[in-house]
Design goal:
The structure holds three protein chains of three kinds. Chain A is an all-alpha fold. Chain A contains 14 helices and four strands. By secondary structure, chain B is mainly alpha-helical. The radius of gyration of chain B is 22 Å and the shape is globular. Chain C folds into two domains: 8-245, P-loop containing nucleotide triphosphate hydrolases (Rossmann fold, 3-Layer(aba) Sandwich); 257-463, Rossmann fold (3-Layer(aba) Sandwich). In chain C, strands 6-9-10-3-11-12 form a six-stranded mixed sheet, sandwiched between helices. Chain C has a four-stranded antiparallel sheet with strand order 2-1-4-5, with helices on one face. In chain C, strands 14-13-16-17 form a four-stranded antiparallel sheet, with helices on one face. The longest helix of chain C is centred in the middle third of the chain and has 16 residues, at 179-194. Classes of the chains: A mainly alpha, B mainly alpha, C alpha/beta. Chains in contact: A-B, A-C, B-C. Chain A binds chain B through residues 77, 121, 125-128, 130-132, 134-143, 145-146, 150, 252, 254-255, 258-259, 262, 268, 298, 300-311, 314-315, 318, and chain B through 75, 138, 142-145, 147-149, 151-160, 162-163, 167, 273, 276, 280, 285-286, 316, 318-322, 324-329, 332-333, 336-337.
């Protein structure tokens, strides 16, 4: 017979277990802490205009990050997301004369294509995704610049394109809406469909997955294509905010995307992670950076912060997971 | 399997081994030939050769460090940013010290540095080593994957470089003898810097091949568990590799700034990619424990010549980026295939 | 064979060892004499690895005394253990594939000349000497990845013999070997015994142990529960298994002989001249509905490769597979499953499960397409129920659907794998060593399961050693 003490102890243990073992929960807690601390130190953060700005900017990084999240879940990595963004932007921009919508469609198609190329090379020749996407990072970035001759393309002639990143739908910036739609669709796919389950299983053990009848290669290629698509979608949103397409638009986004995904609880090992977590990660990341720029520490500090942050996040998560494992055993 | 089959396999593997051993040499010769064909007047000229050898030694020295790190199955993406960070920070620190000591800044009239070179050199190399060790500690002790650690470090260092330098270049022309090591040559063709590279590279070849050091590095990368079971402190050797990688990046920074007589805030940007490409061409992969340092020396020459040919062809630097990327993918592909065919042969045995 | 003057090499008294609250060893006494082979047996988790790790200096005992050659010692580290003349060959391979034989033997113990340079010549010579001592001829310049499995084990032993130990611990060294290879290795071990070494042999293949041991020590739940002496008692398997399990459990299967041999008249699967060069040659056979077809053979005889070929994980060079009288081509496992062929592989951790996923996810993963609703959504509720069903039916010891499979014991993990295939209702399942590394109790449960299934007209192709 268990007495009351034992039962409460057990309940406490399971609550702590739940918190510590669920990276998503941790992500939410981090976000709340960051937001609270930041708003205490820098009240300016709470201004609606500021919040809207942060949400808008980080929705864009978030779109790239959720695509990358899927790649991480399946146990691979894609360092070329920034370059995919640049290249799809540039190629799409070449079709502006046909109109904004064709240009945007082409941008998305190029994203799918480049993602396909990544996925194909990695699966067909069984290569390290780190090596391949590191190489492709250079190739796509270089191509973007060579194709455009290093020149910017101005968007003034294309109404829709010009406003896509600046526009609102029902008081919310378009970027946020697109981000939320992407998150909802991807979460749905990952959690509720056969494809999603197979993604997680393949990330956990790709050989077992194959022997269970999962078409691992096909799934990986699809995931890379989705990642490329997400990277491509972010491009026009950014370009419209500066009124022009530049061939180096995506530079550095791979780090931001990884930082956000990891902050949201997705691991590099595969088999674990969530798109919703990445959303939280995007918000947390956004407010941290925002706090920094508002406190006038300067823009170069953003680079330092990004770098230190991603390292710090992994250290923190390592520690938390260790404590969780100790408690749960 | 009967005797004859065994003999056949021995012969065919001997043939492929021969090709593999001399493959890099063959490719090197081919690239030289192509260069001469494309630009018979300029390519073989002393100035051009000097240029090739100089860029080779810069990329090459960085690659020595990268190769070490890859041999222990890690990766160092921060080397490029160290090339800017180390000298900028060392000047920054020396400046602060001088101001504190003598009330005088070493930075005069619009970013000219007036100081003696030696302390800057030593401090730069030291800072490089310290950054490397920091990378090592984070990877080993804090268990952050090296991809993330060095990627984060790359950005953090780039940001700090801007902070310390304001984004401006700093000119070293007022420093006595600053360009000695960077521009001096032996008989007009062989840059002293290249000799420094060869010294470093060959020392590393010797260390890896003939001493305990080599066994530690190769076993740590080849099978970390096995190495641990044999009592090897794999964490220590990984940290040492990272430390050396950072240090060599610092050396490269010195050679670079000496020749250009300036320290640019963006120098070295993208060099990590070159170093990985060279390492991969030279036979070193992310699997760890495989490949030789001698191969990377040949590979450095090959890549430098390829890049030189491209600029002789008038191709803008973005083409270099494309080619480097393709080389990484292609060389990695080659390695995957040779591994596969090797295992196939073993299974057939 | 006359016995030499036996020296008591090792004496352990009342060894206690705890790991975060769990007592792995509860006061163990152990002795080892020179010139003898003592086997340490027990189920997974009984404490045999802990005991050998303490001798090897990997762990330190919490209580108790250890006497090496009569002197009281405290073995604080692997290095100390080496100094005391103890060598160990671990369960996990400790060879670096990219390096060659002598480099591996001398790993971390390199011989130097002038304090810096490696003395390659001397190391090669010494390596040859050790291999001669062991009585096995291997080219010391060969790369480890090119060695056969037996040769690799010999190199591991050579590594352990480097410092001339008198006590040698061999932990599961025969696991990857087939019968002839084991015999070969046993000859070498017996030879070492005549040279005066005291050898502790840890293994779980009871039959092997009865062949090689002079003495068998049985450990269960951290206690020594039995000791059998080969010189005076007849070593039979039951006498070893009973104390291991603590109950008189044996193979309980009682089935009508006739029932066992009965099977349907229809040929389910027909293999015609299947060949993979280097693995198996011209295999032609029939598998009937409701039949359990057993394969017997040595590891490396090509059985696993044959199974993989039928399952589509390997492609045969030539030959035809016919199912239900129609010729089929099995391109990959996905194809095989759609055609009603399943396979339980011999390495459940690497090939049968995704350890970081839950029990439910592992059970349902091959059946997802059968539980899809509108819009391609999965019928989550049904899947959860099915998974719970199988947990109950197979008596899988787990906290529930959501527990991660990595926390289950070997036997229960294997049951999860079996559930996965049962859920899909295959026509034929290839079974490759389903009870490898599974303790005796779970082994029995699994055998019973297979027979039950056969009674339901399913066909099984088995390879069980």
């Amino acid at each position: 017979m268990q007495n009351v003490d034992e039962i409460t102890q057990k309940n406490k243990l399971s609550l702590t277990k739940l918190i510590l073992s669920n990276n998503l929960f941790i992500g939410a807690i981090i976000l709340i802490c960051v937001f609270v601390v930041a708003s205490i130190l820098i009240p300016a953060i709470l201004q609606p205009i500021n919040i809207l700005n942060v949400l808008r900017t980080n929705s864009i990084s978030g779109i790239v990050a959720v695509g990358l999240t899927m790649v991480l879940i399946i146990g691979e990595i894609d360092l070329s997301v920034g370059s995919i963004m640049s290249m799809s932007l540039v190629v799409g921009g070449m079709f502006l004369s046909l109109g904004s919508i064709p240009a945007l469609i082409i941008t998305c198609l190029i994203g799918l294509l480049l993602g396909f190329i990544n996925g194909y090379i990695i699966t067909k020749w069984k290569m390290s995704s780190l090596m391949v996407t590191l190489g492709m990072l250079s190739v796509y970035a270089g191509l973007a610049n060579v194709i455009s001759n290093g020149q910017a393309t101005y968007l003034y002639e294309s109404e829709l394109y010009l406003n896509i990143g600046k526009g609102y739908i029902a008081y919310l910036p378009v970027s946020i809406i697109i981000f939320l739609i992407v998150v909802i669709i991807l979460t749905f796919i990952l959690l509720k469909t056969k494809f999603g389950k197979e993604v997680y299983y393949s990330g956990a053990n790709s050989r077992s997955a194959w022997l269970c009848g999962i078409k691992v290669n096909k799934i990986k290629i699809i995931v890379y294509m989705l990642c490329g698509l997400c990277a491509a979608m972010a491009g026009p949103l950014l370009a419209s905010q500066t009124n022009r397409i530049i061939p180096t638009q995506g530079a550095g986004y791979e780090l931001t995307a990884i930082a956000i995904a990891v902050l949201g609880g997705t691991t590099l090992d595969g088999g674990k992670g969530s798109v919703v977590g990445t959303l939280l990660g995007a918000l947390t990341f956004g407010f941290l950076l925002n706090a920094l720029s508002l406190s006038k520490i300067g823009t170069y500090a953003e680079l330092v912060l990004k770098g230190a942050l991603i390292i710090g996040i992994v250290i923190l998560l390592n520690y938390v997971n260790k404590r969780a494992a100790a408690i749960c055993n | 399997m009967n005797r004859n089959d065994n003999e056949l396999i021995k012969y065919s593997s001997n043939a492929t081994d021969f090709i593999k051993k001399y493959l890099l040499l063959i490719i090197l010769i081919c690239t030289c030939v192509i260069g001469i064909i494309i630009s018979p007047a300029i390519f073989p000229s002393p100035t051009n050769i000097q240029n090739i050898l100089f860029s080779c030694c810069i990329y090459g020295i960085i690659t020595v460090g990268q190769a070490l790190v890859m041999l222990v199955k890690e990766i160092d993406l921060s080397v490029g940013s160290i090339v800017a960070f180390a000298p900028v920070t060392s000047i920054f620190i020396i400046n602060k010290i001088m101001i504190a000591a003598t009330q005088q800044s070493i930075i005069v009239g619009g970013n000219y540095i007036q100081a003696s070179f030696l302390p800057i050199v030593l401090l730069t190399i030291l800072i490089g080593a310290l950054v490397g060790i920091a990378n090592g500690v984070i990877v080993v002790k804090l268990k952050v994957p090296s991809l993330i650690t060095t990627l984060g470090m790359l950005n953090a260092l780039a940001g700090l470089t801007y902070l310390f330098s304001g984004g401006y270049a700093q000119y070293l022309t007022k420093i006595p003898n600053v360009n000695w090591i960077g521009t001096n040559t032996v008989s007009g063709i062989l840059p002293v810097s290249f000799i420094v590279y060869l010294a470093i590279g060959l020392t590393m070849v010797w260390l890896l091949g003939r001493t305990k050091f080599g066994k530690r590095i190769y076993s740590t990368g080849g099978n970390e568990k096995a190495a641990l079971f044999s009592g090897i402190n794999t964490g220590k050797w990984k940290t040492i590799s990272f430390g050396l990688s950072g240090m060599f990046a610092g050396v490269a920074a010195i050679l670079y700034s000496s020749r250009l007589e300036s320290v640019e805030a963006i120098q070295g940007q993208g060099y990590e990619l070159f170093s990985i490409a060279i390492a991969v061409i030279g036979g070193i992969t992310l699997q760890g424990g495989k490949g030789t340092m001698a191969g990377t020396i040949l590979a450095a020459l090959i890549l430098s010549i390829v890049l030189n040919i491209m600029s002789l062809l008038g191709l803008v630097s973005w083409y270099q980026t494309i080619i480097t990327g393709l080389i990484i993918v292609f060389a990695a592909l080659m390695h995957t295939y040779t591994e596969k065919s090797k295992t196939k042969r073993l299974i057939a045995n | 064979m006359s016995s030499l003057d036996k020296v008591k090499l090792l004496e352990m008294k009342n060894i206690v060892k705890c790991f975060s609250g769990v007592t792995a060893l509860k006061g163990v006494d152990f002795e080892l004499y020179s010139g003898e082979i003592v086997s340490l047996v027990g189920v997974n988790g009984a404490g045999k690895s802990t005991l050998s790790s303490i001798i090897a200096g990997i762990y330190e005992a919490d209580e108790g005394e250890i006497y090496v050659k009569g002197k009281l010692q405290v073995i604080t580290s692997p290095k100390k253990s080496e100094e005391l003349g103890i060598g160990i060959v671990h369960q996990e391979p400790t060879l670096v594939n990219g390096m060659i034989v002598w480099e591996n033997i001398f790993l971390n113990r390199e011989l130097l000349k002038t304090n810096i340079l490696l003395d390659r010549e001397r190391m090669k010579v010494e390596s040859k000497k050790i291999l001669e001592f062991i009585g096995f001829d291997i080219d010391v310049n060969k790369k480890v990845e090119e060695l056969t499995l037996v040769e690799k084990e010999v190199v591991e032993i050579a590594k352990a013999m480097l410092l001339n130990p008198q006590i040698l611990i061999l932990d599961e060294v025969t696991a990857p070997l087939n019968q002839t290879e084991v015999e070969h290795l046993f000859d070498i071990i017996r030879d070492l015994k005549t040279k005066g070494l005291g050898i502790i042999f840890i293994g779980h293949k009871i039959k092997e142990l009865t062949q090689i041991s002079d003495r068998v020590v049985v450990i269960r739940d951290g206690n020594i529960v039995g000791e059998l002496d080969g010189e005076t008692e007849l070593l039979n398997e039951k006498a070893i298994i009973h104390p291991m399990l603590g109950e008189t459990e044996g193979w309980h299967g009682e089935y009508n002989e006739k029932q066992m041999q009965q099977h349907g008249d229809e040929v389910l699967l027909h293999l015609d001249n299947l060949t993979i060069k280097g693995s198996y040659n011209n295999i032609t056979l029939d598998v009937y509905k409701g039949e359990i077809l057993g394969f017997a053979g040595l590891k490396g005889a090509g059985i696993t490769e044959l199974f993989f070929s039928i399952f589509g994980a390997l492609h045969s060079d030539s030959g035809i597979i016919t199912k239900n009288e129609k010729k089929i081509q099995v391109k990959n496992p996905n194809d095989a499953i759609k055609k009603g062929i399943g396979m339980i592989t011999n390495d459940r951790q690497k090939e049968g499960l995704a350890l970081t996923q839950s029990v439910k996810d592992n059970i349902v993963i091959s059946s997802l397409d059968l539980y899809m609703g509108p819009l391609g959504l999965l019928k989550e509720q049904r899947l959860k129920e099915q998974s719970k069903n199988y947990i109950k039916k197979l008596d899988i010891k787990t906290t529930g659907n959501d527990q991660l499979v990595q926390f289950l014991s070997g036997g229960n993990q294997q049951k999860v794998v079996i559930s996965k295939w049962l859920m899909r209702n295959m026509d034929v399942i290839l079974v490759d060593e389903p009870t490898r590394g599974v303790d005796v109790k779970a082994k029995n449960e699994i055998y019973n399961l297979l027979i039950d299934q056969k009674m339901e007209k399913k066909s099984y192709i088995n390879y069980i050693t």
